[in-house]
Amino acid sequence: MTLEAPLVRSTTADAVTTLELDSPHNRNALSTRLMAELTAGLAAAAADPEVRAVVLGHTGRVFCAGADLSEATGDDPTVGPRGLVALQRAIVDCPKPVVALVDGHVRAGGLGLVGSCDLAVAGPDATFAFTESRLGLAPAVISLPLRPKLDPRAAARYYLTGETFDSAEAARIGLVTEAADDSAAALRTILDAVRLCSPQGLAESKLLANAAVRESFDRYSEELVALSAKLFGSEEAQEGMRAFLAKRPPRWAR
């Protein structure tokens, strides 16, 4: 029996666990298996007393393309959004700082992963877009970590237009911590600082920093899961996803 290659590669060195998304066949989309592997990797890092921080990275030119549209038509439309809520909450609740290292494209649900991380470094090849409105959807459950962090005017622009923006703009609007010409060097600076901190100090400081994000999850998770499920089941979203997969404009595009 041949074992399937992991979709999330985990390594630990120098008190840091690195979790790399490695699902090139679907551009690191948030499949059920990828989300399960990432959740397991976070739990293992959280339980390891020698680990001070977690890095969430990726292989290839895409950090994460968002939802796996091939799984978007199950019997229960809440399964996908509920799974993404749980994954985002696992990042937020991990007692270790989670740092996103983005050197590729981030779309839709992938922005929820970045937004859930405590810190995020984006390199010059990173691009970002909330593409949901172009598919008949809305950035519903990913708003749980993002609304407390994003500049409101910028959120309105990029939610409503689906425009692509770069690392510098992502830093300006609060999506990432730093836009760096050398992302690896910027990450080293952050990790070197974190290694000087105590586990208790990191865990309690993270709780303070994430107070508004945790409140967002507590208050709005069910409402936004329901919204996401309703939208994914709508005729407009079905047309948007069919058009996307067929690489054609949806019928409403002008």
Descriptive account of the structure:
The protein is an alpha/beta fold. It has a single domain, classed as 2-enoyl-CoA Hydratase, Chain A, domain 1 (Alpha-Beta Complex), CATH 3.90.226. The protein has helices at 32-47, 79-93, 109-116, 143-146, 152-161, 167-172, 183-194, 199-209, 211-232, 235-246; strands at 8-13, 16-21, 53-58, 62-64, 98-102, 105-107, 119-122, 127-129, 164-166, 178-179. Strands 1-2-3-5-7-10 form a six-stranded mixed beta sheet, with helices on both faces. A four-stranded mixed beta sheet has the order 4-6-8-9. Helix 1 (32-47) runs parallel beside helix 2 (79-93) and helix 2 runs antiparallel to helix 9 (211-232). This is Enoyl-CoA hydratase. Belongs to the enoyl-CoA hydratase/isomerase family. GO terms for molecular function: catalytic activity.
CATH secondary-structure class: Alpha Beta
Relative helix content: 40-55%
The ordered string of helix (H) and strand (E) elements is EEHEEHEEHEEHHEHEHHHH
CATH architectural group: Alpha-Beta Complex
What radius of gyration results from the CA coordinates?
A: 18 Å
The share of residues in extended strands comes to 15-25%
